[in-house]
Amino acid sequence: MDLKPVLFLAVLSSLLLSSPVASAAPWSQVSYNSNINLGESFTHGDYTITLTDIARNWDGDIYALMFTVYKNGIEEDRIAVNLGQSTEFADGKYKLTFSKYQFKKISGRLEAALIPNFEISSTTTQLKDYNKTTVCAKLTTAEAENIKITWKTSGVELQNKPTSKRYESLSKDGNLTNSTLKWSGSGSIILELTYQDVDGKKYNQSYNVLQNSVYEETGLGVSPGRISAEKTVFKNAAFRAMTYANLSQASISDLRSITQTGKVSPITVNKYRENIEKKRLEAAIIRSMNYIPYSESEKAKLNNILHELGGNQ
């Protein structure tokens, strides 16, 4: 007796019975095939889902499909899909549907779960006695629930300190916050968001308000004396960072060029001191870009250094 059909049916039944509970999240179709054959695949992102076997009834019609799921070329899972039904995989990130079997052709589609995400932006205007930054956060893609807003500041003085807030839910394309911050000094303002999708999966986003802000021209102008003073402050912070912050050679070279500093001899210090100097340099770069009329080339170099500092935190 050939045991292969019996074994296949046993495996198929096991896979169908172990299919996860359907997600309530919205979906977006990412791939469709109106005539998929054995050995062919659906692909999206890191995933390849290959049709590896089929189940037929006594009339020879196909009523179920078996797929092998690969992530980055490595087998991750095996799933079965009944005709007219769907099966989720990859922790609910994807859903495969056996749409129909007609004229001896298998139709199926692959869908990706829509994950809620906030689109955050900030704009800063320099005024006479303080800076004004407007922060906007808009929910894109899908609904979010149990949303919490937290603000963290370091090295800046706020005239109107924002408070942490909670929201039960927010619909797609809804505006979460449109906050205006009045601040002075140099440092950082971090907006942190935690939230869940409709299935209860947790997510978080962190946004460096001042580092990512678009700075608008005000026409106020900055006096030559103020520019000179800011250059001195920045040069001192840059020299300390080049000495103690374990920066890349590219960053050291760019800082020496911008500040017109001679040769620097880096000194190895403990991680705590190193991180302090990195944070000081980050704050100094952000502050200096508000007052010092850098060239476009210098701005690009400073942004590259900020990127390095952010990646090394």
Automatic annotation (TrEMBL):
It comes from the Archaea. This is Uncharacterized protein. The lineage of its organism: Archaea, Methanobacteriati, Methanobacteriota, Stenosarchaea group, Methanomicrobia.
